[in-house]
Write a structure and sequence with these properties.
Blueprint: E1 20-21, E2 31-32, H1 34-45, E3 51-61, H2 64-70, E4 76-80, H3 88-94, E5 97-100, H4 110-121, H5 130-135, H6 138-141, E6 154-155, E7 158-159, H7 169-187, H8 189-194, H9 199-214
Parallel strand pairs: 3-4, 3-5
Antiparallel strand pairs: 1-2, 6-7
Helix pairs in contact: 1-3, 2-4, 7-9
This protein binds adenine.
Amino acid sequence: MEIVVHDLRAFAHDRHAIVDDRPYGGGAGMVLKPEPILEAVARITQGRGTHLILLTPQGRPFEQAVARELVEHPHLLLVCGRYEGFDERVRERLCPDEISIGDYVLTGGELPALVVLDATIRLIPGVLGDTDSARYDSFMEALLDFPQYTRPPVVDKLSVPEVLLSGDHERIRRWRRKEALRRTKTRRPDLLRRAELTEEDRRLLGEIEEEKGSG
Ligand code: ADE
């Protein structure tokens, strides 16, 4: 894997390497000029099958499924905006995959590009150890993680749940699944609604409901 950083200003034509200009129609802020971007994309991709991404708050929301999609492309080119945004003709000419990392506005696309890269690169086989990658198969991703503990067994009068010290792998698996379901139900009910649940999951959710009723 190779990452190359390109400076948009290297593709400007004037002496001052200007890449932005005032918006037609007036208003605050500056707009990224189309030519440096069109030229940069043409020179960098050189006809290779490159998947072009524009980082903007107007893009489709970035999530794990998008990272799984991106990791399949042999070449990615991420274009970071600054200022008020891109001249619309960049979109018309290049039809990029526009991605937003969340409903907030940053000063530029650089941090979003790093976020997208990090989430995507860790999916390349061999980047994570086997044990980690196994934990993050698509089924596990549908739920939030279960609580984790490490030594010591008691700290500040707080104990590790007994089941985790039992050595009973089946009980531990069940407990973890149940706590993942509990946490997801409490914190992210939207994820739970989207998740593909097994028979066992439904049983465990039933138990969680009953505990609430009796507690
Ligand atoms: N550029 C500025 N804010 C952004 C966001 N939230 N996502 C992607 N690119 C951006």
